[in-house]
Design a protein that fits this description.
Chain lengths: 255, 167
């Protein structure tokens, strides 16, 4: 179920910071209705779409003011200025603005950014972008290529129990930043967050009783879905190697 | 973020696998030896821990870990499966509720009584039997002894439909 990516143009944070807005023109031939702003220097990035000239997502760097190592170019500086001014304007209202939940962070990676709030939530859609930065993994080129092949093989086969990818590409930048990018839907929650919610809301016995005796046992359905996904994966000849409920959810994106 | 949830149009959550950053291709029966132990440590199968062998059965073990966490609300698989002593020094021991929910314990628990579980005794014991059967199929020491995902799923479905648990 591969969606056409004709209406998605991509810009990611490193290019914004490094003064390259090249990915705006990445698919210039396609009429882009959404621009995905990503923020990444690590293996997982947030991407958030902006209907062009209609709304914006505001980002805030976690590192603080003193991290001014990046000198953006004129065009990207304009964008950043716009984002920052919107940020300053809307910061007092941040508690009133809608949240879009959590996203988990990847294995052994840190996310230096967070999306602080979204002033135009209804106008735009949030995506998640997985960035596999090849230099960080310390793997050989053949390993990286094998993994990318596996990821593509997994994603290009439609299966309702495997997350679908909306766009993928490989990119490299001066400075040795080479990465694979995989844009996918931002999921509502993770299994681990669900389990934590359950264990908080119910005590041990309550949870046990609820989970087991309900007429439509959630545990059974969940496990069947995981098994269906794994079955498809193994049928493709892929080994996931990292099955787990989730990593801990990232701190709340708002507030 | 390996298993994520997506809410569909009816408000129901569905699980999807994600995070294929460590995925490899090949035949499922093939065993990959990797010097790097990638992945999430507590979900590693014993052959990954001991011999760094990645195969499809390692995914099955990790699935069993997820099911275990769902059932027992804890992470320590030693309490439920004391026949796994080989990992005793490997897994940590956080404070966990005591294992061993028997029907007697459940009956005397005030919360359970409040929930009036008594009419559901059959279903509770049945589900418990099924899930523990799946766990027994999953937590095999050798990867070759574990069932693959399809047969595990089919067995689980047939047990849930009422066939005797023969694990």
């Amino acid at each position: 179920m591969r969606k056409p990516n004709a209406n998605i143009a991509v810009s990611w944070g490193s290019s914004l910071q490094a003064g390259r807005c090249s990915d705006f023109s990445r698919r210039r031939s396609d009429p882009a209705r959404h621009v995905l702003f990503g923020i990444s220097e690590t293996s997982l990035a947030y991407c958030f779409s902006v209907p062009i000239a209609r709304g914006c997502w505001v980002l805030e760097r976690k590192g603080g003011k003193d991290d001014n190592s990046d000198v953006p170019s004129t065009s990207s500086r304009n964008i950043l200025l716009f984002l920052r001014s919107a940020h300053r304007l809307l910061w007092p209202l941040r508690r009133c603005l809608p949240s879009h939940g959590h996203i988990s962070k990847g294995n052994a990676t840190k996310i230096p950014f967070r999306i602080s709030y979204s002033p135009f939530l209804t106008l735009s859609k949030v995506y998640a972008c997985k960035v596999i930065r090849t230099a960080n993994l310390g793997l050989s080129a053949s390993d990286i290529e094998a993994e990318a092949t596996a990821i593509r093989a997994v994603y290009t086969t439609a299966n309702p129990y495997i997350i679908e990818i909306l766009s993928d590409w490989q990119d490299s930048a001066p400075g040795g930043f080479e990465a694979y990018f995989f844009v996918m839907d931002l999921m509502d929650s993770s299994l681990e967050a669900h389990m934590q919610t359950l264990s908080v809301n119910y005590n041990y016995w309550d949870f046990y009783v609820k989970a087991v005796i309900s007429k439509d046992p959630d545990v059974y359905v969940d496990m069947q879905e995981i098994l269906l996904g794994l079955e498809h994966l193994h049928h493709l000849g892929c080994v996931h190697r990292d099955v787990k409920p989730s990593n801990g959810p990232e701190s709340p994106l708002i507030g | 973020m390996a298993v994520l949830m997506l809410r569909d149009v009816h408000g129901q959550f569905h699980l999807k696998l994600a995070d294929f950053g460590f995925t490899t291709t090949g035949t499922p029966a093939r065993i990959y030896q990797s010097l790097q132990r990638q992945g999430t440590t507590p979900y590693f199968a014993p052959e990954i821990v001991l011999r760094h062998e990645f195969s499809a059965s390692g995914d099955i073990w990790a699935f069993g870990c997820i099911l275990y966490e769902f059932l027992y609300c804890c992470f320590d698989r030693r309490q439920a499966f004391p026949e796994l002593p080989f990992l005793a020094s490997y897994y940590s021991t956080p404070n966990m509720p005591a294992f061993g929910i028997g029907w007697d314990t459940l009956q005397t628990d005030p919360v359970s009584l409040r929930a009036s579980i008594v009419p559901y005794r059959q279903e509770i014991e049945r589900s418990w039997e099924v899930f523990n059967g799946v766990l027994r199929l999953t937590f095999k020491r050798e990867g070759t002894q574990r069932r693959d995902a399809q047969s595990l799923r089919e067995r689980m479905a047939s047990w849930m439909a009422g066939n005797p648990v023969d694990a």
